[in-house]
Amino acid sequence: MLLLIWKRRFFRDYTGGIIYFALSGQAFSLLEDLGYLVGHGGKVGVFRILLDPFFHATTCAVFGFTVAHCKLGRGKPWLLVGGFGAAVVMHCMYDFLVSSPSVIVVLLGLLLGFSSYAMIITLYFYARRLDQRLGLAWKRKNNFCRSCGAPNPRHLLFCTACGTKYQ
Questions:
Q1: For 57-111, how does the pLDDT look when each residue is reduced to its tens digit (9 = 90+)?
Q2: DSSP characters for 20-66?
Q3: Hey, where are the domains in the chain?
Q4: DSSP structure class, residue 137
Q5: What are phi and psi of 93, to 5 degrees?
Q6: What does R_g of the chain's alpha carbons equal in angstroms?
Q7: Angle subtended at Cα 18 by Cα 14 and Cα 24, rounded to the nearest 5 degrees
Q8: Is the pLDDT of residue 140 over 60?
Q9: In whole angstroms, how far apart are CA 88 and each of 5, 35, 58, 85, 163?
Q10: Residue 48 pLDDT > 80, yes or no?
Q11: Is 128 exposed, middle or buried (0-12, 13-18, 19+ CB in 10 A)?
Q12: Residue 142: which of 125, 154, 128, 160 has the closest Cα?
């Protein structure tokens, strides 16, 4: 995902990093869970299909946030390794906890899985607030053209690059 969108004009804010990477995490989760469904039967597959999409979205969104941070020039390139490492550690911890024979350990894994709902929502709103503070959000001043992505430093009501009028 990183290689696909790094140089694209539409990828230029924190919220985009979270959304694009969370969606790729959900797509990966769907493929992985279908493999579990076919390989291990209905009980395991249904359990994973209900819980995993948001967990995978959260782990990928953490990495997407760090990618956006580096893309915006606010972080060093080594931060990408840290963000990827954090996502991998979260995923490994979840897999270890959920696959344990101990019921208590599995419940801890489920707690981690369900807490991912709160994590991704919190991360999204934090990213949105950062985007608004940096003038990158669509709801604030017209800092960028919504059609072509050109910068609009004077906050005009039209794009000087493509001519699109804003409302």
A1: 999 999 999 999 888 888 788 888 999 999 899 888 887 887 777 888 878 877 8
A2: HHHHHHHHHHHHHHHHHHHHH-HHHHHHHHHHHHHHHHHHHHHHHHH
A3: 2-134, 142-167
A4: -
A5: -65, -45
A6: 19
A7: 145
A8: no
A9: 21, 20, 11, 5, 44
A10: no
A11: middle
A12: 154
Confidence tier at 49 by pLDDT (50, 70, 90): confident
Tens of pLDDT along 146-157?
677 788 777 777
Residue corresponding to tokens 């995902």: 1
User: Quick one: tokens of 133?
Assistant: 């503070």
**Residue in the block written with tokens 């101990």:** 102
pTM: 0.75
Q: Give the separation between CA 160 and CA 53, rounded to whole angstroms.
A: 41
Q: How many C-alpha atoms does 4 have within 13 Å on its Cβ side?
A: 6
